[in-house]
């Protein structure tokens, strides 16, 4: 089952957040050799999306990031997202999901 984690992105800024993922025994998952994929959309059925850059390491830490030029073009509001990790053998697991809130930029 995926962890629930809501995110706040300030429009026009560089965004980065990290979280730790553990197995059922509470031990960090070694993501060596895994690839990550993460999108957020206005709704689950929206065809357009923005992709996070996903990086993960051997101690279970996963980082999602976006450059400022990407967040600058986002429309403020609420979005849905998830993060999927693909193991070297091809197994895909959803590790986190939640709501992304983009707050509007004042300084331009």
Describe it for me?
The N and C termini lie far apart (40 Å). With 108 residues, this protein is mainly β. The protein is 5% helix and 49% strand. Strands 1, 2, 4, 5, 8 and 9 form a 6-stranded mixed β-sheet that branches. A 3-stranded antiparallel β-sheet has the order 3-7-6.
Draw up the topology in text:
Elements lengths: L2 E2 L2 E4 L4 E6 L14 E7 L8 E2 L1 E4 L4 E6 L1 H5 L4 E10 L5 E12 L5
Concise account of the structure shown:
The protein has 108 residues and is mainly beta.
Number of strands: 9
Q: Summarize the helix and strand pattern as letters.
A: EEEEEEEHEE
Mean pLDDT across all amino acids: 96
Instruction: Report the β-strand fraction as a percent range.
Output: over 45%
Kindly report how far apart the N and C termini lie. Answer: 40 Å
Structural class: mainly beta
Helix content: under 10%
Overall shape: it is elongated
How many alpha or pi helices?
Answer: 1
Low-confidence stretches at least 5 residues in length (pLDDT < 50)?
none
* Alpha carbon gyration radius: 14 Å
Main sheet specs:
6 strands, mixed
